[in-house]
Design goal:
It contains 15 helices and 19 strands. By secondary structure, the protein is α/β, with parallel strands linked by helices. The strands form five sheets. Strands 2, 3, 4, 7, 8, 11, 12, 15, 16 and 19 form a ten-stranded mixed beta sheet that branches. A three-stranded antiparallel beta sheet has the order 1-13-14, with no helix packed on it. The chain has a two-stranded antiparallel sheet with strand order 5-6.
């Protein structure tokens, strides 16, 4: 049954840029739920995941800089998330005196001098007359944690990960965003020009701008590059409506519909506004110290060079298909390339027109790491409504209980490591919103004050939001994956 929005609802949606028809569609999803992904099989080496020999990696890396000539390269970094989840266990410690919680907190505090923010914490506590070392010696642990997490001190529990001190060097300490500058100079660098785009929350953009204004000149001098950095926020118009537990619209204390950020899938709108030929996508927290960054640089160049090689050949075929100059032998060659190299499933009675349509899409090459217990989307062959299988990155929440056995056969996962081509063979930008599967996503339980609600997460940026892209999976070494999901991960590097 369709919801009858009040005049107040319609005016509220108009003011925030929300489409009433889309809001109705979201409320319908709460009632019927999302369909699970129809897994055919896990993608594995030799069946959807390409393993490159060392000599091929060396060849691709050697050719990479020449391939970039005349192309704009950009690094796209989702950086809007707060670090609150990174400090979840320490937040729990402030209100929970259980033995297990205390044990973890004390272990953290006893190793504090090893953390990159130790000196900063000492300074902010000294400002109020406290000596951190003495407070820990006196077992005044909660005071130290309070100063680390909350506004009276470093306020790290409310800051974005990008602005936290991440890595200690003999002569300096770097934030996560600075490590992305260093990486960009090493591989997202075309003719000395480095373009970076950070998606940030509006309340933190000024903090990013202030930090970068301070540090960019030194990095430009050190790496002999020019940085071009801009920002975007997740458009409020992409927020999704919340629902009560009975699936009726959730309203706030003023009687207005409640909208919530729809997850990182909404960032496809941000990416759609970029003007670049090659876009590297990498999370803000997946960075390593510079002395250990070589494997990352090597394989970022490898993925991008492989993408550009495939794109060049696809472009040549697309021009021929458009001109209609294709004999049967050449057409068979094109079909073989599309199936074997672009991983496009072949359909019965494939026509030149249909092949043109299937090849003329945005393309991405995704790094796949062997699964050693880390979380992340898995690579699968997924069936569409016509039973055609295509390569997709699938989250566990998208997999039906009766298909969990196929999930256990996945040997790899994607650590949000991909290189994207956003333009067609005529140099025109694709409209990325035309390649999203709107029927993927998941429903989660959240809270608003003391009330429980149901929230709608849009298809993830590298899941449903890119489901209709040409997708290629390439194995990369685990050394390229260095996420910081909890504060304890900072000591793994």
């Amino acid at each position: 049954m369709e919801m009858q929005f009040t005049p107040q609802d319609l005016e509220f949606m108009r003011a925030r840029g929300s489409n009433p028809e889309e809001v109705q569609h979201q409320l319908d999803i709460f009632k019927k739920g999302f369909d699970f992904a129809r897994l055919d099989r896990a993608a594995t080496p030799g069946d959807g995941i390409l393993q490159l020999e060392d000599d091929m990696v060396e060849e691709l890396v050697a050719d990479y800089d020449n391939m970039l000539e005349g192309k704009k390269v950009l690094k796209f970094v989702p950086a809007s998330g707060a670090a609150s989840r990174m400090f979840k266990e320490l937040f729990t410690y402030l209100t929970d005196d259980s033995e297990e919680t205390q044990k973890k907190a004390i272990a953290f505090l006893e190793s504090l001098p090893r953390y990159p923010f130790y000196e900063a914490l000492c300074d902010v506590m000294a400002r109020d007359g406290y000596k951190l070392e003495a407070e820990i010696k006196n077992k005044n642990y909660k005071l130290a944690v309070d100063y680390l997490l909350n506004e009276k001190g470093l306020n790290y529990g409310n800051q974005p990960k990008g602005l936290l001190l991440f890595h200690r060097y003999p002569d300096k300490i770097r934030t996560a965003v600075e490590e992305h500058l260093v990486e960009a100079a090493r591989y997202a660098n075309s003719g000395g020009q480095c373009y970076l785009h950070f998606t940030v929350s509006p309340q933190h953009q000024a903090g990013f701008e202030k930090l970068l204004a301070q540090v960019v000149p030194a990095y430009e001098k050190q790496y002999n590059v020019k940085y071009h950095i801009d920002f975007s926020i997740q458009d409020p118009a992409t927020d999704t409506v919340a629902a009560e537990l009975d699936n009726s619209p959730f309203r706030d204390e003023n009687g207005n519909l409640l909208f919530r950020p729809a997850g990182h899938g909404a960032l496809i709108h941000n990416m759609n506004r970029l003007d670049a030929d090659v876009v590297f996508v990498k999370n803000i927290d997946n960075v390593i110290t510079e002395e250990r960054v070589k494997p990352t640089v090597t394989y970022k160049k490898t993925l991008a060079a492989h993408l550009l090689q495939l794109q060049a050949r696809a472009f040549s075929y697309l021009k021929m298909l458009e001109a209609g100059d294709v004999d049967p032998m050449l057409f068979c060659e094109m079909l073989d390339f599309a199936e074997s190299d672009l991983m496009i499933p072949m359909e019965d009675d494939m026509s030149p027109e249909r092949l043109y349509e299937l090849m003329n899409r945005p393309m991405r090459v995704c790094g796949m790491v062997r699964n050693e217990g880390e979380p992340g989307g898995g690579p699968f062959w997924v069936l569409d409504a016509d039973d055609n299988a295509s390569l997709q990155i699938v989250e566990s929440s998208q997999i039906a209980p009766d298909q969990k056995d196929k999930m256990t056969k996945a040997t790899h996962f994607n650590p949000v490591d991909m290189v994207c081509a956003l333009k067609n063979y005529k140099g025109e930008k694709f409209d990325l919103l035309q390649y999203v599967d709107p029927e993927t996503g998941f429903i989660s339980s959240k809270s608003y004050g003391d009330r429980t609600l149901k929230a709608l997460e849009l298809p993830g940026l590298w899941n449903g939001a890119m489901s209709d892209w040409i997708t290629i999976f390439v194995e990369v070494p685990i050394a390229t994956f260095n996420p910081v999901k909890t504060v304890f991960d900072l000591l793994r590097r």
